Amino acid sequence: MYDGKIIFIVLDGLGDRITPQLGNKTPLQSAKTPNLDKMASIGITGIVDVISPGIAPGSDSAHLSLFGYDPFEEYPGRGVFEASGFGLDLDDDEIAFRTNFGTVEEDGNTLILKDRRAGRISGPEAKGLIDSIKEIVIDGIKFKTLHTLEHRGILIMKGDGLSAEISDIDPHATNVPVLKSMPLEKATDFKAAKRTAELLNKYVLAVYRKLKDHPINKKRVKEGKLPGNIILPRGASKKFTLESFKHRWGFNPACVAVGPLYKGVARILGFKLYDPPGGTGLPNTNIKSKFETGLKALEAHDFVFIHLKGTDTASHKKEPITKRDFIERFDREFTIILDAIEKGATVLVTGDHSTPAVLGRHSGDPVPVVIAGPNIRPDKVNKFDEISCASGGLHRIRGKDLMPILLSYTDRNLEYGLHPTNKSQRYIPHTWKGLRIE
Ligand code: ZN
Ligand code: ZN
Fold first, then answer.
1. 435: CA distance to ligand 1 center in Å?
2. Cα(276)–Cα(291) distance, rounded to whole angstroms?
3. Is the Cβ–Cβ distance between 289 and 332 less than 8 Å?
4. 418 CA distance to ligand 2 centroid (A)?
5. What pLDDT is attached to residue 278?
6. Do 19 and 359 contact (CB within 8 A), yes or no?
7. For the chain, which residues score pLDDT lower than 50?
8. pLDDT of residue 410
9. Ligand 2 geometric centre to CA of 317 (Å)
10. Which pLDDT value is given to residue 427?
11. CA 374, CA 409: separation in Å to the nearest integer?
C-alpha cells in the first residue's frame, strides 16, 4: 500500500555524547527504545556527518543537506527560512533576520549580553514586548518585527538599496558585548552593506531604549526573571530561490513540522505543509498526532518529512534526562511507523546534528541513521544509538548521500549517465513525453 513511498523522520539535535548523569551513556543509548531497536534489526544503519566531518550545523543548513542540497553553495542565510515558515515571501527590497529576545546589562557604554533567550520569555509577555516595537522607521527604512515561538521572532527591514551582506548583532555567546553589525569584508556592494549595518545598529539601540524600562520587563525583574530588553538579529538574508525538491528528486513532498524554521526550509523547497494538531515544537508535543498526520499525508504524497524538536530543546537546556524521556515517548508512539514499514513504506530516522546535553549547543559529532523498508539489505546492528550504528552497513556518510540512497532503495534511480533526456538526471521523471505517430 505504501510501496515506493518514503517517511523521513528527523529528531532535531538527536546525536549526543557520553553523559555522566546517565551512567556514561548517551541519552539515546540509555533510553528504552524497543521499537527503534526493532527497526535497526530489520534495517540498515550508519552514522552521518550531516554537512561534513567536524562541522556543527545550524538546523537550516542541516536540513538542506539532508534533503540533498549543498549548504556551501545553496544557502541564503537563516532569515529567509524563518520568514518563509511564517508564510512570508520576501520582496526584492526586503532583508529578513531571525531574532531572539535577549537580556543585556549596561557596562559603561557597552551592552553586555547576559542571556541569549531572555530566560526563554514567551506567551503574552513576549507578545506584549513585540507590540511596543512592532514597527519602527529609521531614515526612511521600515523595521517590522514578528513574534514566532517563545523568545524567537523575525525582523524584516524594508527600503531601497539594502544589502544582506552584513554581520550578526547576536554574538552567539554570553557575558560578551552585543556586537556592532558590520559590512562583510567581501560584500559585493560595500557601500550598501555599510549603510544597512549602520541602520541595523541604530535600530537595535532604539529597541533597547524602548524595552529597558517597559512595564513587562519591570514586572519580570521584580519576579526574579530575566528581562527581554534587547533583540538580537542574525542571519541576514534576501529573497532566494532554490531548485524544488520535486524537480531535484522526483518526489511529491509533504512536511509535518511546527517550528517556523523547518516549515520555512520545506516551504522554500516546495513541500506541502501539514499542521499536526497538538504540535508545540517542544518536548511536550503530541508525537502521536505528528505520526498520524504524516501517515495521512502519505496517501497523497510519496515523500513525507516529519520533524520533532523536543530532543534539541532538552539538549539546549542541558537536560539529558528530559531528552532521554522524550526519546522513550517517541519510541512508544513509533509502532504505527513500524506498521507502515510492513505495508511497504521505506522509513528513515536520523537527526539533523548532535546537540550534546552536556554542552548545551550544536556540535560536530555525527548522528545515527537507520533506514528500513522492502528493499533494504540489513546489517548486524540491532540497536539504534550513536555507538551501535557506527558499526552499521551504511558506515559513515554525509547528509547529502541520503537522498541518492533513498532513490536507490525505492528503485527510482537511473543508471548514471544513461538518462535519455538529461545525463545528470538521477531519477525517472513523471514527465517523459512519448514520440507520437502523427
Ligand atoms: Zn536542528
Ligand atoms: Zn538547536
1. 47
2. 9
3. no
4. 41
5. 86
6. no
7. none
8. 94
9. 10
10. 72
11. 8
Instruction: Tell me how crowded residue 222 is: count the other CB atoms within 10 A of its CB.
Output: 8
* Whole-number Å distance between alpha carbons of 85 and 91: 15
Counting ligands in written order, which one lies closest to the CA of residue 60? 1
Burial (CB < 10 A; 0-12, 13-18, 19+), residue 62, is: buried
Smallest CA-to-CA distance from 84 within 276, 268, 279, 274 is with: 268
Q: Quick one: which ligand is closest to 262's CA?
A: 1
Per-residue confidence (pLDDT) for residue 424, from 0 to 100? 60
Kindly state the cell numbers that stand for 2. 505504501
Which set of grid coordinates corresponds to residue 134? 512592532
Strand boundaries in 116-238, DSSP class E = 135-138, 141-147, 152-158, 176-177, 230-237
pLDDT score recorded for residue 284: 85
What would the grid cell of residue 276 be?
A: 499536526
Ordered structural domains, the chain, with CATH: 6-75+242-409 (3.40.720.10), 83-237 (no CATH)
Q: Return the pLDDT at 312.
A: 97
- 293 contact partners, CB below 8 Å, separation of at least 6: 256, 274, 275, 276, 277
Distance from Cα 12 to the centre of ligand 1, integer Å = 5
State in Å: Cα 120 to ligand 2 middle.
14
Distance 33 CA to ligand 2 centre (A): 23
- Going by the DSSP 8-state scheme, the letter that residue 179 receives in this structure is P
Dist CA 370 CA 418 (whole Å): 30
- Ligand 1 centroid to Cα of residue 33, in Å, is 21
Q: What's the pLDDT tens digit per position in 381-437? A: 999 999 999 999 999 999 999 999 999 999 988 777 766 666 566 676 656 667 888
Å from CA of 414 to ligand 1 middle: 32
Ligand 2 centroid, distance to 176 Cα (angstroms): 21
Q: How far is the CA of 61 from the centre of ligand 1 (A)?
A: 9
Strands (E), 52-117: 94-107, 110-115
Ligand nearest the Cα of residue 356 is 2
Which ligand has the nearest atom to the CA of 350? 1
Rounded to whole angstroms, the Cα distance separating 337 from 344 reads 11
